[in-house]
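User: Some background: our group keeps a shared notebook of sequences we're curious about, and every so often someone picks one and asks for a predicted structure to add to the entry. Today it's my turn. The entry only has the sequence so far, pasted here. Could you supply the structure so I can complete it?
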Amino acid sequence: MQIRPFRVSDRVAVVGLWSRCDLVRPWNDPDLDIDRKLADDGSGLVVGTIDDAIVAAMMVGYDGHRGWVNYLAVDPDRRSLGLGRQMMEFAESWLLERGCPKLNLQVRTTNTDVLAFYESLGFVVDAATSLGKRLIVDE
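Assistant: Of course. Here's the predicted structure to add to the notebook entry:
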């Protein structure tokens, strides 16, 4: 798999992948999230390709305090091939290049397969509660 920056022409394939991987929710419009990421810098929006087909995608960001990974998705037909691990290795390298000391991510508590995946990569549950407040409602 080759990992490269997102291109505008990737949008439909990426949103479709995120939808197939059950990452899209009514209150998070993935097209608006892509627009916001591109407006902010866009460098952490990447896709993984095999033979020019998009098989993985994610957003990586660093706010100066913590790094974050969002929307990590691997084509359901290509899971268990190490592609998710390769994407996370890319994310960690991307963050380390920017001096990021810690990587955070959020996983729905009901998504036990994904929790097990991240635990296999050395992630642990932080003794913290994730809080959120919606500032812009995506219609």
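Suggested note for the entry: Residues 2-120 form a domain with the Aminopeptidase fold (CATH 3.40.630.30). The longest helix spans residues 83-97.
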